[in-house]
Amino acid sequence: MPEVRFVIRWPDGRLESCYSPSLVVRDFFREGQSYPLPDFLKRSREALQIASERVKAKYGHACSLALGQLARIEAAATQFEGQDEARVRLRNLSRWRRPMSTEQKIERRYGAIVVGGGQAGLSASYWLSRAGVDHVVFEKKSIMHKWREERWDTFCLVTPNWQCQLPGHAYDGPDPHGFMVKHEILSYLDGFARKTNAPVKEGVEVLAVERDKDLFLVTTSAGRFLADAVFLATSLYGDPYRPRCAERVPDSVVQVHSTEYRSAAALPPGRHRCRGGPVRGADR
Fold first, then answer.
1. CATH number for 214
2. 69 burial type by CB count under 10 A (0-12 exposed, 13-18 middle, 19+ buried)
3. Rounded to two decimals, what is the model's pTM?
């Protein structure tokens, strides 16, 4: 399918290159035109959802790249909420042509490439190292990023500590029947990362994974690589998602995504009613 790259300028002047697996975005945007933020979001949702459906009609599955791009656009737009004059300008809209030969500009070939530097990705690396397989782990942000940056302050496990059995790194603390809280979880995971010593390249985003004969072609922000096998360890919820119904919630109601929530103390003043009567929000 024909693919498109479109470059946008956010209200703060930052440029971002966006992706669509279909030319349909040309029906929604024009080069050089600026759009009020709500209108830009509406057009982006319609265009990228149609693009994903076209991929589904052809290949039998929705396009994760299109939906992921939409999620990134919606997440970035939240920082401009409440700015009535915020506009997004479309700088460039062009068809993206892939190089004809995948034999050119290949940085390196690996036995395996692991996508994601969380506990699943490092576990894959652990077993690949034991098997003597030359591999690399690409992590878009940093090792254990979601545990470190996207969990609230009082987060704790809902399974007992003795069930924490990462390969070669079983829980050996003083409270096997207890439930680790956030700082204890991070300590446990950091210990696993040190023990694994995986070949992680942080700050490298994987943009596409494609078949290239008997190999996989992996396109990243650091170049293109070939691999005999690819492990996807990006978690079930890779990008924050806000349902469309959130747009109908009154502005007087503060909405906080779970990746942004840290504690009740960070919420604005207000009262929330529950079965026991009006109370201030509390951590759960």
1. 3.50.50.60
2. buried
3. 0.58
